[in-house]
User: Fold this.
Amino acid sequence: MTELKNDRFIRALLRQPVDKTPVWIMRQAGRYLPEYRATRQKAGNFLNLCKTPELACEVTLQPLKRFDLDAAILFSDILTIPDAMGLGLFFTEGEGPQFKNPIRTEKDIKNLHVPDPETELKYVMDTVRLLKYELDGSVPLIGFSGSPWTLACYMIQGGGSKDFNIAKSLMFREPKLMQQLLSVITQSVLAYLDAQIEAGAQTVMLFDTWGGLLTTRDYLDFSLHYMQQVIEGLKKHSSIPKIIFTKLGSNWLESIAQSGCDAVGLDWTIDINQARARIGDQVALQGNMDPQLLIASPERIQQEVATILKAYGHGTGHIFNLGHGITPEIPPEHVAVMVNAVHELSQEYHG
Amino acid sequence: MTELKNDRFIRALLRQPVDKTPVWIMRQAGRYLPEYRATRQKAGNFLNLCKTPELACEVTLQPLKRFDLDAAILFSDILTIPDAMGLGLFFTEGEGPQFKNPIRTEKDIKNLHVPDPETELKYVMDTVRLLKYELDGSVPLIGFSGSPWTLACYMIQGGGSKDFNIAKSLMFREPKLMQQLLSVITQSVLAYLDAQIEAGAQTVMLFDTWGGLLTTRDYLDFSLHYMQQVIEGLKKHSSIPKIIFTKLGSNWLESIAQSGCDAVGLDWTIDINQARARIGDQVALQGNMDPQLLIASPERIQQEVATILKAYGHGTGHIFNLGHGITPEIPPEHVAVMVNAVHELSQEYHG
Assistant:
């Protein structure tokens, strides 16, 4: 492994002492940056951008040039796996992701295969390798995947949804079929993250965007169970920290912390001091500023950063982040205010 | 007050002994019922349906004819107050509610008035009176309002939204203006619910659909604070139980329970046994089956009802409901299965 010039992020994930609280931002390479919009235009569309390693690498690095961030995250989409399975991912302007061939029947599920990352998702692995070269050890690179449950939601529904009623209908009416689907996806996610680590990712994160739609019983059986299998399968990469982020997962923090992951992502609806009291002796915590707060004045942003740092308190184990992805209307200058405030104001809590 | 023939719902709200767990369903008068769709067609559109007391009364009573429900809920929209304030509520097919004149500036806020319920919202009060007459004491009638925060979200945003970014932007950038707006809305909600009670409502419920978008700090300051003022203002109606339902509010159950309300509505993401352990000695609990589960087989529905009843356990203080409104694709026969299962299976937990 290349020696890291800035290993603050990795150290905090492993709950080792740091000089300042590390910070990165979900969707830090994104539409709020004019240079991102320019590269996306050059790519023609979002999916081309994901599938062209040079351009995906370019946008991954853009926020690192502007802000003093402590980690880079692979630029990609969470739906690359179902796309490689043949579901035909596409995006229409102003709409979320959609699939040409959603999964609806037993036959659809039986026909699914586990994509080979180095051939069918080669563009992702090439992006990781290129990024590893370009980053040159400046900051760690985060690889990621959608969680099995979240991928299943989109694959069955055929696109985004308020309640993923078609996906939940399959779960409630045909739980065994749903488990078969989740098993194939789990194997695919495991192979995908394993390959990202082999290609150079130094941390991996599971994005469970839709686990929060479930009851406790269903969350444990249909979402966390499969994420745990992924974490278990990645155990051989013992030096690679693993992060689980279930949006709206605050009811289940204790169970998530026991999954074998190193860190738990928090959305903004839970107090980070409460989260630390509940699971801070087992895992690091990542989060959790309200993404919309970045629209406020610089003073208000600094105040919120101070509140969250104080709520977490002294010692390591905190990675500052938003509680969800940054949104397109945020002024980039406000992001700089946040990042700098984290580094400046956090020093009193360390060393 | 008319003597109630079935007072199970009121008794459970006040945590008095009952023979069976009472049950009603959020949005029980709704599009899943063919007779509702027929009346709506007769009304021309949704807003006419709300504004015509005879038709609003008709659809309120429809589910009670089909199912053995323990309460009726006034058929209306949560956005009647802003409509009466002059914002111009309208609905377009397939879209959520929208306002012609959203609130964006200090001047917009200063110009708002508190609508007089008996003149400007007379159609609602007439519906309540008509319902009271038609119900003739068979089951209690629930009156309701959107919470001040939830109404503010729609009034500023101008319609539905994933994140209500315009509303949250006002909160973060101009908190004092937001408080002024919330104060006017709070006075309006209080007057509205007070008038509903005077007209015959025997329970009132605040629907805080969007409180769950907030951090703990902001939830307490911008949502719960104002709901508490409403509850406080309704104290003179000491025999009328008051319910607060914050969707995705499981982080704040203790604070909600201390607001002075008699019952707390739960969405399906929290275990009702955990909720009871946290606040069951202070308030009744209403909920919390996943609305999507009604798409499953009758056996699966019965199983889920049994699981929730067992999770709540012995004794009174539980009102069975869904964790959110019923959706249009649910077969009415499945609702009957749920309602009957609640009454049958709950008997072992009472008496």
User: Anything to note?
Assistant: The mean pLDDT of chain A is 97. DSSP finds 16 helices and nine strands in chain A. The two ends of chain A are 27 Å apart (CA to CA). The longest strand of chain A covers residues 141-146.
